[in-house]
Amino acid sequence: METIRVALVGQPNVGKSALINSVGNARLRVGNFSGVTVKKEVVRFSRDGYDFEITDLPGSYSLTDYTIEERVTREYLDDSDYDLILNVVDSTNIERNLYLTTELLALNKKLVIALNMTDEAVKEGVHIDEQQLGKILGVSCIKTSAIKKTGIEELIQAIIKSYNLRENRFHLQFSEVFEQEISHIVSFLEEKKIHCKISLKALAIKLLREDKETYLRFHEEPIWIELQPIVNDAYQHLYLHYDTKDLDDIFNDEKAAMAKGAVAETVQLDKQVKQSFTDKIDTLLMHQFVGLPIFLFLMWGLFQLTFEVGSIPMDWIDAFFALLIDGTKSFLGDTELASVIADGAIAGVGAVVLFLPNIIILFLGIALLETTGYMSRVAFLLDGFFHKFGLHGKSFIPLVSGFGCSVPAYMAARTLKNDRDRLLTLFIIGFMSCGARLPIYVLFVGALFSEEQTGNILFLIYISGALLGIIAAKVLKMTAFKGDDEPFVMEMPKYRLPSFKLIWHTVSAQAMMYLKKAGTYILLASVLIWFASNYPKQPEMEQQYQVKIEQAETQQSITALTNELALYKLENSYLGIVGHASEPFFSPLGYDWRMAIALETGLAAKEVVVATLGILYGLGEGEDEQSSGLIDKIRTNISLPAGISFIVFVMIYLPCLAASMVFMREAGGWKYLGYLFVFTTATAWILSFLAFNVAQFFT
Amino acid sequence: MKLNDIKKGQSTTVIAVIAGRELKNRFSSFGLVKGAKVTIEGHSLAKKTMEIRINKTHIALRSSEAEKIEVT
């Protein structure tokens, strides 16, 4: 069977994905475009003896490199193998959409246009003569509606028909002045019998656009001597006519004029004065004073939902994995294999799966914000404040999510389209103290401050973390991410109710990607950490203690001896050796080797810090922040300045392994994780050093 | 006059866009080109950002960017 490869192109919010999802019997494959975190969806189905392979390209306003999405689309259209472009157009806003269509026509590929959202256009009194539009553009135009599922079969037939057309006529009609210059060049090329893969008209346009490859090709040929003055003449005429020497301006003008011309000839508008649904909502949501509070309330709701409702299945997952660990241990017996599977692999993977409910709820919320069109309004409301610190209005959502858990926060930063804005946001998310750090704060504040002060100090920790983050953003913006401000120009799309299928599809794809990728890294890392804290073995010591424990008379001394053994084993494990080795690094901050190890195990997960301190300060494992024994131990072993310095370090240093891996993936490479490590560690060290010395001065 | 001098609810016509290549291309893909009719729909607090409308497209932009658009 023959395969028709279709590139699906359209501006954002035209219902491109919905249209392709409404084709029956389609198989969908989700992946990534190579090298970037842009989702690539390929849809396959068969009809009338043809196999269709449709690649859904990211929504683009035009074929430029303004965002990663647009770059991906342009590169795909330029370099990949495909038979035909399917351009999806929003019928209710056809003029702006046709701007992209003119750029697609210039590519000189076979093209079919889907005039989508026809039902909505009819309601709004927009009538399009698709036959006439098709004639003007020289391609088939089919009216479709993804929601009402109309026009889908006609569209498929049009694709098959267009695919089977031999000749591929170039139909892009520029203004008269422009066409004249083109025809001069074309007739010269004809006289010289130039042969080319693309039509001569397309070639002439490439020459006029100063297309590098075309120039390189002609530069080596003898014909260049004759061609150059002709092209040069054309430029002079165009410059004179358009009163500018900027070719981009000239082409942009041409494209806009073509879109406008096509609309004038084919679209009829019913007069209407009725305020649209979107305008009505926007008078409230976009209100100068009320808009922001409403948004904050919605965010608060989403936040509550994510971490309150999310904690219910989290408890089940936690219990399930605890059961699994116990089960594995009792099934395999007290062996090394059981330990590495249960304490290493299962515990580590369990820690990742634990965050899944949070991620699903948060992404459901974000998907709703985005697909309904509210997100760009929020960015509009908040950009004034965030821009002062070099951030973007959309940075708000990832930053707020960071207070719950950094993992979904890093993923939420995807809503930022611009590379630099996104990286800057990714770098400061860690400053928003995540939920897993709370036990550490509770433990230290409880041990070092009076009970009445606890609440205030905790609040102070969270607020100063956020403030530090914003200051860090400003500093990074002035140093590492220096450069012009990225412009803030975005469309505020119409409010639309998203289809359930599409939302589910987005959320489940994101959840699967999280599970697959973070899961594999975590599995490996958990086993490594398990190994580092259990090896090398100390068989002699263990035997000695075994004897002592057997001889011990009271339960108390047995516990003491068991703890002593655990401490000895940990101190002499690879992890302990690292802790001792890193002591000089931490001693200016007032930490001993035990605090150093606690911080280092915290790199795996912040929850581990309290557990590690529990073991190291002579208590059994499984201590939590409530245990007064541990609080007493902290109080007697750690001075107030060292404690404050420890809190400051925990506030700032690298997030847990799961988050770091997600950061690495979202930022786009190991090197960024390296930068983040250096940046957070240096900031944490300096500020802890300051905190330690200032506190020492006052006590 | 510049676009950010126009009051809420008023309409105007674009004379020229004086901006870098990237931003200018962005503007034109939204239909904001010479001769386009623009309506000011609203401002955010302290007029840091503004909402404009061209045909049926609503666009949010910063005042610092609106300054780059010459209007009648």
Topology summary:
The complex is a heterodimer of chains A (699) and B (72).
Chain A: E1 2-10, H1 16-21, E2 27-32, E3 39-47, E4 50-56, H2 68-79, E5 84-90, H3 94-105, E6 110-116, H4 118-123, E7 126-128, H5 130-137, E8 140-143, H6 152-164, H7 176-191, H8 200-208, H9 212-219, H10 224-242, H11 247-266, E9 267-269, H12 277-285, H13 291-309, H14 311-332, H15 336-353, H16 356-372, H17 374-387, H18 396-401, H19 406-412, H20 419-429, H21 438-448, H22 454-478, E10 489-491, H23 500-534, H24 539-551, H25 555-571, H26 574-581, H27 583-586, H28 593-601, H29 607-616, H30 628-637, H31 640-652, H32 657-667, H33 670-698
Parallel strand pairs in A: 1-4, 1-5, 5-6, 6-8
Antiparallel strand pairs in A: 2-3, 3-4, 7-9
Chain B: E1 11-17, H1 21-29, E2 37-43, E3 49-54, E4 57-62, H2 63-66, E5 69-71
Antiparallel strand pairs in B: 1-2, 1-5, 2-3, 3-4
Query: SS-based structural class of chain A?
Result: alpha/beta
CATH evolutionary superfamily of the domain at 2-164 in chain A:
P-loop containing nucleotide triphosphate hydrolases
Uncertain segments of chain A: 620-624
Number of self-contained structural domains of chain B:
1
- What is the straight-line distance between the termini of chain A? 83 Å
How does this structure look, described?
The complex is a heterodimer of chains A (699) and B (72). Chain A has 699 residues and is an alpha/beta fold. Chain A has 33 helices and ten strands. Among the domains of chain A are: 2-164, Rossmann fold, CATH 3.40.50; 176-243. In chain A, helix 26 crosses helix 28. Chain A is elongated, with a radius of gyration of 32 Å. Chain B has 72 residues and is an alpha+beta fold. Chain B has a single domain (3-71), classed as Roll (SH3 type barrels), CATH 2.30.30.90. In chain B, strand 3 (49-54) and strand 4 form a beta hairpin. Chain B is globular, with a radius of gyration of 11 Å. The model of chain B has no long low-confidence stretch (mean pLDDT 89). The chains are: A alpha/beta (699), B alpha+beta (72). The A-B interface holds A 61-62, 64, 66, 92-93, 95-96, 99-100, 248-249, 252-253, 255-256, 259, 286, 288-289, 291-292, 376-377, 379-381, 383-385, 387, 393, 485, 487-493 and B 21-31, 33-34, 36, 42-46, 48-49, 51, 54-62, 64-65. Strand 10 (489-491) of chain A pairs antiparallel with strand 4 (57-62) of chain B, so a sheet runs across the interface.
